[in-house]
Specification:
Layout: E1 7-10, H1 18-33, E2 55-61, E3 64-73, E4 78-86, H2 95-109, E5 114-119, H3 124-132, E6 136-137, E7 149-154
Parallel strand pairs: 4-5
Antiparallel strand pairs: 1-2, 2-3, 3-4, 5-7, 6-7
Length: 160
């Protein structure tokens, strides 16, 4: 896949194709964790991903949405990157890294100095991506019952 040919754009999280990708992500995780969009889990609602404090991005290949992710406010200085998802046929080709870079850029654009994220014990590939991108382990900042890794990265400095 030619990453330079991919297009990243803002989109609503509560309308197709964004909502379709989000449901595919949640459904794919059911065998691993059960549904992750349940009471008691950290919120990741369309409102969380809406301006002025949040954002939702799609990655498109030839007009077809192949990945998504959101940025939501935690504090005035920190955002959380949530619901990163790449369709199965686009995995292993650098799309997740491109999406993570775009979400970090979006966090910067929104004025955040720190990005945080998490991932579960059955997603070692995601943890590797985050650590390679400069995320350092921190404590359980969001009380996510499905997570086993919580990471943080400064967005206002070149940290790799």
């Amino acid at each position: 896949m030619d990453l330079s040919a991919l297009h990243v754009r803002h989109a609503p999280a509560d309308a197709p194709p964004g909502s379709d990708l989000l449901e595919a992500m949640v459904s794919e995780l059911v065998p691993l964790y059960g549904r992750i969009d349940v009471p008691g889990a950290p919120s990741a609602t369309p409102q969380d991903f809406s301006p002025p404090q949040g954002s939702f991005l799609l990655v498109e290949d030839g007009g077809r949405a192949i990945a998504c992710g959101g940025v939501k406010r935690l504090t005035d200085l920190a955002c959380e990157i949530k619901r990163m998802y790449v369709v199965p046929e686009a995995r292993g080709q650098g799309v997740a890294g491109l999406l993570l870079d775009a979400l970090e850029d979006e966090g910067r654009r929104l004025g955040y100095a720190i990005a945080r994220l998490d991932t579960g014990p059955h997603q070692a590939h995601a943890q590797r991506l985050y650590e390679q991108a400069g995320y350092r382990p921190i404590g359980n900042f969001n009380q996510n019952p499905f997570a086993s890794f919580w990471g943080e990265k400064r967005l206002d400095a070149d940290v790799t």
